[in-house]
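User: Can you help me understand a structure? I only have the sequence.
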Amino acid sequence: MPQTAIFGAAGPIGRSIVQALRTRNADYRVVGRHRQRLLKEFGGDPRAEIVTWNPDDPESVCLAARDVETLIYLVGVPYNHFELHPEVIRKTLAGAIAERVKRFVLIGTVYPYGQPITPQVNETHPRNPSTFKGRMRKAQEDILLQAHTEGKIQGTILRLPDFYGPRVEASFLHSLFQAAVTGGTANLMGPIDRPHEFLFVPDAGPVVLDLAAKQEAYGHWWNLAGAGSITQREIAREAFRLAGRPPKLLVAGKTMLRMLGIFNPIMRELVEMHYLMTTPVLMDDSALVQLIGPIHKTSYSDGLRLTYEAYAGGVGAADL
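Assistant: Let's start by predicting it. Here is the structure, written out as C-alpha cells:
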C-alpha cells in the first residue's frame, strides 16, 4: 500500500514528485479528476496506484485519501475561479482527517506575500496580499494551518516561484520556447528587464519529499527559491540563441493586458497579478536549506538548454 498520495499529480510539479518517488523505489498513489490523463502519465508504472476523485463527493475524497500517511496537495482550479481554492482544500482536508492521514503538504505560491517590502522575501515576511487571488491562496493556507493548530493533522506549506522546464505548458515561458523552435514571435508579459526567478521543475520533486519527511517542517511554511535571479529578456536571448535565430518578442504591459482582457478572460485575470512583473518576489530559502540540507538547483544555462531541446524534439507542445 503506498504511503504517499499526490492530489493533482498530472501537472508538472506532480510529475516531478512522482519521478522523485520512482528514484527512491517507492510506491505511490496518484489522484486526479480524469482517469485517462492519469493512465497516460502513470499507467505504465507498476508502482503507481491510480485513483480518480470528485472533491464535491465526500466519500470520493475519503477513498482517495484512505490508508496513506502523507498527502501532497497540488490541486488546481481555473485561473478565473480562485474562489474555489479554499473550498476544495477544506473538502480535501475533511476527508484526509476522517481517514487519519498523518501529514498534509500544500504546494503553494508567492501570492499570499503580496507586494514585497524587502529585496528578498523570507518566511518572516508578512502575508499581506493585495489581490483577490492572493487572498484566496492565503485563505487556503490558513485552513490547513488551523487544522494543524487544532491537532487534527500535521500541515506544512512549500511556496514555489514561477517555473519552467520540459513539458511545462503552464509556464508563462511556454510561448517563448515554442517561438524559438518554430521561428515565431514569443508573447511575454512586461516589463521584461526586471529581475525574476524561475524554478526548473525537475528540481522540485526531491525537495518536496525531503520536506515532507521532516517532522520539524509541520506547522510552518517554507520558501523554495529559483536558481538566482534572471530577466525574461536574458531567457529569450538564450532560447533564441540555442535555436540560431534572432529574438522576436511581443511584450504586453498592464495596459495591453487590460485591452486583451476585453476578449480573453484569462488575460483579464492577469491584470491584478501584474505587480509580480514590476516588483517581483525574490525568495530567500536559507531556512529550508537549514532544515533539509543542500538543495540541487539546475543552473539557468543548463535548464534553458534542456527545456529548449525538449521543445525542439517535439515535447512541450502537442504532447502536453
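Now, to help you interpret it: Residues 315-320 have pLDDT under 50 and may be disordered. Residues 132-149 form the longest helix (18 residues). Let me know which part you'd like to focus on.
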